[in-house]
Amino acid sequence: MGTTIKLVSEINENNNSIFLVDDETILSDFGFNEKEVTYINNKIQDGTFLITINRLSHVLWIEKVNTSTIEYKEAERLRNESALIWKSFTTENNSSVCIFDLVGSKNLITAFIEGFLYSSYQFTKYKTQNINNTKLTSIEVVSSVLTQPQLDELNILSDAITLTRDLVNETPTYLSAQQLAKEATLCGEKFGFSVTVLNKPEIENLKMGGLLAVNRGSVNPPTFSILEWKPENATNQQPIVLVGKGIVYDTGGINLKTMPGSLDDMKCDMGGAATVIGAISAISANKLPIYVIGLIPSTDNRPGFNAYVPGDVITMYSGQTVEVMNTDAEGRLILADALHYAKQYNPKLTIDLATLTGSAVMAIGSYGIVAMGNTDDAICKEFEASGYQSGEKIAWFPFWEEYDELIKSEIADMKNIGGREAGAITAGKFLSKFVDYNWIHLDIAGPAFLNKPLGYKGVGATGAGVRLLYTYLKYLCQ
Q: Which domain holds residue 401?
């Protein structure tokens, strides 16, 4: 673990410390003098909820917590507030901090610690100069509502999110489909889940037409990785299957992306795959009693060699035929093969994650995850609740049958794109043709990779979806 989190009974008075309070008047019992308490009270009365007290040897931050507001909203605010503290924390080149919980809400103190951990993330692998050397090495926590095992669980989840962010931030030169499969294998060896990698000859034997078609323009072969966590005490006999889009770089293929900046971030197009690896790593490292399988179809999408083109008709792994209308709608092709492959497991529920459409970004921006599927209302509500709890909100899109008309083809079973209208939904509709089980589709194109800071999520890869999946799957263990 990069950061040590330790539950302690008291804090060192000379350490940098953060106090979470809902009643600032009690601060006098914790070493604050009368002038400081008055100053803090006046700031809070003026609407300032984060106050800094500079002492000669250390800094104190006081965060006013509003326990009367809706809990998930306050939790997300606290995650973002912790990012502000981290920013000032780094100016002093600090490495450790004490967090004193004077509120006593498990969810709120946990959210604050989460925000601090995620804010401290840096990807410096390729930097040779001007590196911010501030690293968060330790957090001490004083709280009556947390236990050390709970802090350990939180730290493992944070490490899994760091793993996911590192994968997404990697360069496409390094992270080929084969390397992504190797990274998944290494995680399996480290955290205790099994990994099987199907290489190109095996993919050809299975006749995964979608994955093979997208790979035709690439110099690197495709892979199909199968991750499995099946503890003896699993509470479910039918597995939860997680499917992650693994396009390690997306040029758009023959339909080359030409808009200014449209190619800049396309290394992030394997964000769904990275999320699946991160989520299963966290689940297995924390030994959740749940049977989970991860499926990761992976390739890059390039316009070289014998690249597939608009007008081609592909026979998918399912045997269905697809008329290619746009080679930049490639993610749904590889996901469709994986979703059909999932049928053999008779899944209790399958969740796919993909940086799939710009339409999802245009609809709700980077503030949440677009969701759709065929599950019943009870599952939808449970999943939505996990989104609020984890700080990764989901927006359910309509899935009316009228949208099926938009992907009908004159010469094949379906087209791979439905047009400009309702693009995120027609992408989901395409995927729905390959499932006959409970299924949720998550389009993470908006929150997976950021070009400007958004609170504690920073710039670049965010690890979108890992907390959501972990929270929901932990709920299913109950």
A: 171-476
User: Are both 89 and 214 inside the same structural domain?
Assistant: no
Tell me how far apart the alpha carbons of residues 408 and 422 are, in angstroms, rounded to a whole number: 15
Instruction: Please check whether residue 156 lies inside any domain of the structure.
Output: no
Sign of CA dihedral 341, 347, 353, 358: positive
Inside any domain, residue 166? no
Neighbours of 304 (CB within 10 A): 12
Please identify which of the residues 135, 182, 230, 257 carries the catalytic annotation.
257
Label the pairing between strands 313-315 and 369-373: unpaired
Q: Is 257 a catalytic residue?
A: yes
Which CATH number fits the domain that encloses residue 39? 3.40.220.10
Same domain, 233 and 98: no
Known active-site residue 332: yes
Mean pLDDT by 10 residues, the chain (478 residues): 87 84 91 92 94 88 95 97 87 80 96 95 86 80 97 97 98 97 98 98 98 98 98 97 98 92 92 98 98 98 97 98 98 98 98 97 97 96 98 98 97 95 97 98 98 93 98 96
Which residue is catalytic, options 79, 332, 415, 429? 332
